[in-house]
Design goal:
single chain; 150 residues; alpha+beta; Aminopeptidase; 7-stranded mixed β-sheet; 28% helix; GNAT family N-acetyltransferase
Length: 150
């Protein structure tokens, strides 16, 4: 039996499920304080945001932002349901966004800001660590700033 994976654009109706994904990953990967940041992002800063569905279940999400600089695509707010981690959904969602950015002629840099908890995932996907700032996101959640190099 083949399982269907669909990556599609986020809609506001997805917000409760996206917030639930964050809660399921708190405190393992996110600080509780970050929920208000995600709500603000979804309502005011979202540029290109996607969800990944696995057999009709919203199993992950992640976005792209440019923040006024069309030459830099920023990978943002990657969250995968704990039951689907390690099954390739995060890799598929990230590769989808990398491909979108590579197809934009003006984009020269792809960056991500993440934590010590998952930076190795991005390394395996071709990102290089440029900077680390302790306790950036919250106590115990360090910033790892990375750029795509492949």
């Amino acid at each position: 039996m083949t399982q269907e994976v669909v990556i599609r654009e986020y809609t506001p109706q997805d917000k409760p499920a996206v917030l639930e994904l964050l809660r399921l990953n708190t405190p393992a990967y996110f600080s509780p304080e970050e929920e208000k940041d995600l709500i603000h992002y979804l309502e005011h800063e979202r540029e290109l945001y996607f969800v990944v569905e696995h057999d009709g279940t919203l199993a992950g999400c992640g976005g792209i932002n440019f923040s006024g600089d069309p030459t830099t695509g920023k990978i943002s707010w990657d969250i995968i349901h704990p039951a689907y981690q390690g099954k390739g959904l995060g890799r598929s969602l990230l590769q989808h966004r990398i491909n979108l950015l590579k197809n934009r002629k003006q984009v020269r840099t792809i960056s991500v800001r993440t934590s010590q908890l998952v930076y190795q995932f991005y390394e395996r996907m071709g990102f290089e660590l440029l900077e680390m700032v302790p306790d950036y996101w919250a106590p115990g959640f360090d910033l790892y700033r990375m750029e795509y190099t492949r």
